[in-house]
């Protein structure tokens, strides 16, 4: 595992990295780092409940880490081209992706041409499944979803998340900010509530941990991902502490 600081930028123009940064929990937030056609390094990630953000990597100071995608240089260059294509395609589609925690139902969300084409039954993506599915669109199957384990903690997490969306919807209505916006939050609460009993959750640290493993170990099973995920969580925690005190 590398997990080097994002800044100063060390990954090359024809490289793609998985980013890991401070999130709403100590499991972090994940995305992808790549160079655009104008020669600017960027971070590309699903933020909040539906916004897909393309931001200059140089502006991301503090606890932002990178893990290289460990594939041969020729394939890595092709992956960089693919990511640029996804960015362009999603921008043309409106630049948003619905937030949904059912990462198994979302399997196959990106087509070979880079279009976002969620399968029937998908309710959206999280920051973690956004990265996993984008890599899958390039035929890099990072994790074996069928091995992911459910837990009561994950059920509680999803239930609490649905309550947050419901409360935001109430606040939107109370502030007269529009029925359409309130209904969007209510719909997110509904689909999260429906998925909650599965007890499944894909963590950013699990994504970073899985991508740190040799490609011949992909797709990574749940149990195999946990060691690297714990290591990623520890490194991120140290980076957050250093950024806070520094």
Biggest beta sheet summary: 6 strands, antiparallel
Q: Major sheet: order of its strands?
A: 1-6-2-3-4-5
Fraction of residues in H or I helices: 40-55%
Order of helices and strands: EEEEEEHHHHHH
Cα Rg: 18 Å
What best-fitting shape do the alpha-carbon axes yield? Answer: globular
Detail the poorly predicted runs: none
Q: How many distinct helices? A: 6
Number of separate structural domains? 2
Distance between the termini: 24 Å
What structural category arises from helix and sheet content? Answer: alpha+beta
Q: What do the pLDDT scores average to?
A: 95
Number of strands: 6
Oligomer: single chain
Strand content: 5-15%
Short description:
Helices cover 42% and strands 13% of the residues. The chain is built from six helices and six strands. The protein has a six-stranded antiparallel beta sheet.
Structure description:
This protein is α+β, with helices and mostly antiparallel strands and 246 residues long. It has two domains: 4-99 and 203-245, no CATH class; 152-193, no CATH class. It contains six helices and six strands; from the N terminus they run E-E-E-E-E-E-H-H-H-H-H-H. The chain has helices at residues 73-92, 127-137, 152-174, 179-195, 204-211, 222-245, and strands at residues 4-5, 17-21, 29-35, 41-47, 51-56, 64-68. A six-stranded antiparallel β-sheet has the order 1-6-2-3-4-5. Helix 3 (152-174) packs antiparallel against helix 4 and helix 5 packs across helix 6. The longest helix is centred in the C-terminal third of the chain and has 24 residues, at 222-245. The chain is globular, with a radius of gyration of 18 Å. The mean pLDDT is 95.
